[in-house]
Write a structure and sequence with these properties.
101 residues; 4 helices; globular
């Protein structure tokens, strides 16, 4: 398995996932409820999931912090896009099961 954060393609995917989470702060009120917002919510969830898989390998506290930001952001987006909260809760449950294990 590739080393997480080693500078290869895995590192680039993790960096991109963190960028999606950071960029999600801008989408709340700027994108009206539409298929575009649906795509943004989906990408945000996938980014959190990618970081969760990276956390399984690295056990990095930074990954947990980023996943928690993703969970919070998804919960906030539920105000404008119903369904985001369900993804937030799913990601939170997955994170909880990983951190308890």
């Amino acid at each position: 398995m590739h080393e997480v954060g080693g500078g290869g393609s895995v590192s680039k995917v993790i960096t991109a996932a963190r960028g999606v989470i950071k960029g999600s702060e801008l989408i709340g009120s700027n994108i009206p409820p539409s298929h575009y917002l649906s795509l943004c919510v989906h990408l945000l969830y996938i980014s959190g999931f990618i970081l969760l898989k990276a956390f399984q390998v690295s056990r990095s506290p930074k990954a947990v912090e980023d996943i928690q930001k993703c969970v919070m952001r998804l919960a906030q987006l539920d105000e404008v896009y119903p369904g985001a909260l369900q993804r937030s809760q799913s990601l939170q449950q997955l994170l909880h099961s990983e951190t308890v294990a």
